[in-house]
């Protein structure tokens, strides 16, 4: 049975009222590919719009906090912490890592993934004046802990 559908097939929010709060963590990942010169400017804070990574970090945190407003049927989770980190994977790709933590009745995976996606979109916005060919290639869950099971994405 699908947990987000009732017996009539209508979309419903999952009832988590009987669950016990536990510490939960999740790491979301996004990759954005761009021209090598664009990545150099982004990493050196040499964009006309300003510090692209600082703006994108804030956007990722804000995105994580707004997840329940953006994704239908997501619970509003009391987030304990969100961090956003960036790493050049090669000369043309930037990785975004969002780590989120809460003590609650349901997981925080969607907040980590939303944060990663929004941070990548903010990178695009900050760099689009010099590189409209950027591509957000991937958004995925790297790992989660807490709840019924832990998960690590090996691939």
Keywords summarizing the entry:
5-stranded antiparallel beta sheet, Alpha-Beta Plaits, alpha+beta
The secondary structure category is: alpha+beta
Estimate nothing, just give the exact number of structural domains: 1
Question: What are the segments in which pLDDT stays under 50 over at least 5 consecutive residues?
Answer: none
| Main beta-sheet strand count, sense and barrel state | 5 strands, antiparallel
Distance between the termini: 28 Å
CATH architecture: 2-Layer Sandwich
Q: In CATH, what is the homologous superfamily?
A: Molybdopterin cofactor biosynthesis C (MoaC) domain
H/I helix tally: 4
List the strand order in the largest sheet: 2-3-1-4-5
Q: The CATH topology is what?
A: Alpha-Beta Plaits
Q: What's the β-strand tally? A: 5
Shape: elongated
Q: Which percent range describes the beta-strand content?
A: 25-35%
**Average pLDDT taken over every residue:** 94
- What is the C-alpha radius of gyration, as a whole number of Å? 17 Å
The CATH class turns out to be Alpha Beta
Q: What is the share of helical residues? A: 25-40%
SSE diagram, text form:
Blueprint: E1 22-33, H1 36-43, H2 52-65, H3 67-70, E2 79-88, E3 93-104, H4 109-127, E4 135-145, E5 151-152
Antiparallel strand pairs: 1-3, 1-4, 2-3, 4-5
Helix pairs in contact: 2-4
Describe it for me?
There is one protein chain. The chain has helices at 36-43, 52-65, 67-70, 109-127, and strands at residues 22-33, 79-88, 93-104, 135-145, 151-152. The protein has 155 residues and is α+β, with helices and mostly antiparallel strands. Strand 4 and strand 5 form a beta hairpin. The longest helix has 19 residues, at 109-127. Strands 2-3-1-4-5 form a five-stranded antiparallel beta sheet, covered by helices on one side. The chain has a single domain (22-146), classed as 2-Layer Sandwich (Alpha-Beta Plaits), CATH 3.30.70.
